[in-house]
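Hi P.,

Sorry for the delay on this. The queue was packed all week, but I finally got your sequence through. Input first:
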Amino acid sequence: MGFSVAIAGATGAVGQEFLRVLEQRAFPVDSLRLMASARSAGKTLSWCGRDYKLEDLATADFTGVDVAFFSAGSGQAAQARRAAAEGALVVDNSSAFRMDPDVPLVVPEVNPEAARAHRGIIANPNCSTILLVVVLAPLARQVGIRRIVASTYQAVSGSGAIALAEFEAQIVAEREGRPLEHSVYPVPIHANVIPFVSGFGEGGITTEEWKMVRETRRILDMPNLAVSATCVRVPVRRAHSEAVNIEFERAVTPDEVRTWLRAADGVQVLDEPATLTFPTPRDAQDGDDVLVGRIRADPGHPQAIDLWLTGDQLRKGAALNAVQIAECVLEVPARTRA
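Then the structure:
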């Protein structure tokens, strides 16, 4: 059995990753429709040896579409609602629906049951939140969690192709002795770190940091969980990382944490201090798992553990998670093309 699939925002970085993930997982696509803005309509994109003409998202008819993957930004929420009203299962990658109580916010390794209660639209969480909760959930099933402190190291590609182009241009400009021009970020990202992601919100907390606070609580169904986040952009092309401090209800050992995480879906433990084994963004790039290492006791708190995680934010942090949601709802067995 195959499905009619649509991708809204097909020309973007996440849209392109959707195409790769669908092929690699051998998702049963009977027909494919690719949609973008009016300025891209009429152009073509290739997938699995066939060319597809881009449609204008604003006027596209979703009748007959089984599942629509949206990565067109929160400004296209009305189009996502329209697609759902016309019968499509919509998995939306923007922030538009994430805190809507009528729209499930889903990470399949964590709360797959929520996806099955959808009313046409399912929200894909923030990329940094996804990577975090994939690691937190198997620990929370073993021991209660009191507090999370997370500091992110977010790759440039999280801001899209225009940010990557600006980053590359800055590398060349510095080599040639020219000023580093910037427009995507408030300061140059090359050879720099920027403790600011998206925009400032309530209490001097950035919008990205608030997403991590609120979405983590919702996905884990822990509305009173204490969460503190500091989100930082770093000069890495792809794959986000996070340094996380977890306070538990009781003392746990690093070995217990390693054991629980090794048994968890979507997690790979790389943690051998004696051989300098720990995960880096280069290890995570193009991979499906969240990689975890540097698991150690917090010397400042008897019931806390520190760890480091990294994952590909375009895959597990976006496109892969969305496709896994569709597989869950449509009862599609996860497969990988040989």
